[in-house]
Amino acid sequence: MKWLDFLLGKKTPKSTFVEEYESGFDKKIPALRAISQLSFVVLDTETTGFNPKIDNVVSFGAIKLKGYTLQVANSMERYLDAPVQNRESVKVHEILYPIETSPLKDFGKDLLEYIGSDIIVGHHIGFDLAMLEKTLKPFGFKKFLNPVIDTKYLAMRLEKGPHFDTKSAKQEEYSLDAVCERFGIELADRHTAAGDAFLTAQFLMKLLKIAEIKGIKDFGGLIR
After folding, report:
1. Which helix (H) or strand (E) holds 114?
2. What is the pTM assigned to this prediction?
3. Which three-class secondary structure string do you get for 33-54?
4. How far apart are alpha carbons 53 and 6 in whole angstroms?
5. Which helix (H) or strand (E) holds 120?
6. How far is CA 161 from the centre of its chain?
7. Residue 139 · residue 15 · CB < 8 Å
8. Closest Cα to residue 220, out of 40, 42, 38, 26?
9. Computed from CA positions of residues 34, 182, 151, 132, in that sequence, does the dihedral angle turn out positive or negative?
10. How far apart are CA 65 and CA 118, in angstroms?
């Protein structure tokens, strides 16, 4: 019924889990909080294509990072039953018929509980968030309220300087494959949501160390 209301353009009431998620943002992260005290959730999605309007999430993977420690035991991986598969995207993620898929509502509830009010991180994260927001829209969800860091642009900032025009960057120089190779991160389990989240989390750890060396030591300096 929620999907029907969504397709017909009707206003969808917020599910309880959406309201609970939104209630977790009464307090903002203090600007002076040290990077070592910040909580990050690094995520990735595999999808049926690259258009949030018509494509869907096939799988989701995420891992948490705090105090420069990857919380591997606290990772999340889910597969969704996408209604339409794109032949080209299948060639990339190779997910055709997942063995076990999560009902959409269960996924939404688990996702928002897992993310909480942590800082969201990803490589080209805007696309992933757009896809996830679309996935959760039938439950009254509008947008993520978390602070967001795109490792692609953080890397540009740290390597090229804060005033670098990101539009002039060579995009291939900052693909996930390229930055992992440049920073000595082994490309294992590439093009799976969980695998790419793990690679991005390792990359984030290296970027945070570089940030501290450059004098960026707290949340305010990192997120600007």
Report:
1. helix 104-115
2. 0.88
3. CEHHHCEEEEEEEEECCCCCCC
4. 13
5. strand 119-122
6. 24
7. yes
8. 38
9. negative
10. 10
Kind of pairing between the strands at 39-47 and 119-122? parallel
Tens-binned pLDDT, residue by residue, of the chain (224 aa): 555 555 555 678 999 999 999 999 999 999 999 999 999 999 999 998 889 998 999 999 999 999 899 999 999 999 997 665 555 544 444 444 556 788 899 999 999 999 999 999 999 999 999 999 999 999 999 999 999 999 999 999 999 998 899 888 888 999 999 999 999 999 877 778 999 999 999 999 999 999 999 999 999 999 98
Q: Does residue 203 contact residue 55 with C-beta atoms inside 8 Å?
A: no
**Cα–Cα dist 35/66, whole Å:** 9
Which neighbouring-strand residues pair with 62?
A: 43, 76
Distance of alpha carbon 15 from alpha carbon 160, whole angstroms: 43
Q: Would you say 94 and 195 are in contact if contact means Cβ atoms under 8 Å apart?
A: no
User: Are 190 and 1 a contacting pair, CB within 8 Å?
Assistant: no
3-state SS, residue 72: strand
Reading the block at residue 173, the tokens are 């120089």
What are 43's two structure tokens? 């995520």
Sorted by sequence, the CB contacts under 8 Å of residue 100 that are 6+ apart come out as 79
Chain-centre distance of CA 186, in angstroms? 20
